Amino acid sequence: DAKTTQPPSMDCAEGRAANLPCNHSTISGNEYVYWYRQIHSQGPQYIIHGLKNNETNEMASLIITEDRKSSTLILPHATLRDTAVYYCIVRGTQGGSEKLVFGKGTKLTVNP
Amino acid sequence: DTAVSQTPKYLVTQMGNDKSIKCEQNLGHDTMYWYKQDSKKFLKIMFSYNNKELIINETVPNRFSPKSPDKAHLNLHINSLELGDSAVYFCASSLRTSGGGETQYFGPGTRLLVL
After folding, report:
1. Distances in Å between the alpha carbon of B48 and those of A44, A90, B31, B38, B57?
2. A53 in contact with B, Cβ within 8 Å
3. Structure confidence by residue, pLDDT tens digits, A36-81
4. What pLDDT digit, counting tens, does each position of B59-108 carry?
5. Which of B43, B50, B103 has the CB atom closest to A97's CB atom?
6. Residue among A49, A94, A101 minimizing CB distance to B103
7. B43 vs chain A: nearest CA distance in angstroms?
8. C-alpha closest to that of A7 among A88, A112, A67, A110
9. Residue A105: CB atoms within 10 Å
C-alpha cells in the first residue's frame, strides 16, 4: 500500500504556481520522498526527490516539513503541458533494490 | 537517443496466446523493472532485476516470466494470456547507489489488449 496521501485533484491557472501537498506521516528516517508525474498515455516521469532538506531543480521545488511528515511540490509557473497526474512516493527498499509504490496521485489540471 | 525503449508499443492478441514484450535501456543502469498499470490507472511493480538477478517478485502469476539476458535488457514473457492481463506495461531502469536516492526512468509503455 502507498504510504502517502494526496488530494485526488487540483486546478491551477496557467502561469501561476501550483502547490501540490502530500502527507507521509509514517515515513521512516532513511526514506526519501519522490515525486513523479504521468502525462496522459505516457510513462511516469521523474520530477524531484529529497530526504530532509528542501530541493530545487529545473522542473520544480520540493519543500519537506521539519518533522518530514508532509511535503509540497511546487511548480513555479505552471503551463498547460504540466497537466498530469502527480505521484508523491515514499521510497521503500526490498532486497537492496528500489520499489516505488504508487498511490492514486493528484490529477493537476492547468487551465488557460 | 531513447533512454528506455519498449517494443511493441501496442499488442492485441487472443486469450490463451503467448507473447513477449521487450525492454532496453541505454543509460548504463544496472537495475530494471516491470510495472503494470491496470484500467483503474493503478501502477504496481511486478519484477525487479539487478545485474541480471531477480530481486523483486511481487506475487505475480507464474504465467509471467521475466528474462534478463544482460544488464541493458529485461524482457517479459506472458504465457496463456487472460483477459485480466489487459493493461499498460511499463519498463523502468535505475542505477543502484549505496547512499540511496536512486531515480527510476520509465519507458513509454506497451499497451496490451487481450480479446
Report:
1. 17, 18, 7, 19, 7
2. no
3. 999 988 999 999 999 888 999 999 999 999 999 999 999 999 999 9
4. 788 999 999 999 899 999 999 999 999 999 999 999 876 555 678 999 99
5. B50
6. A49
7. 6
8. A88
9. 28
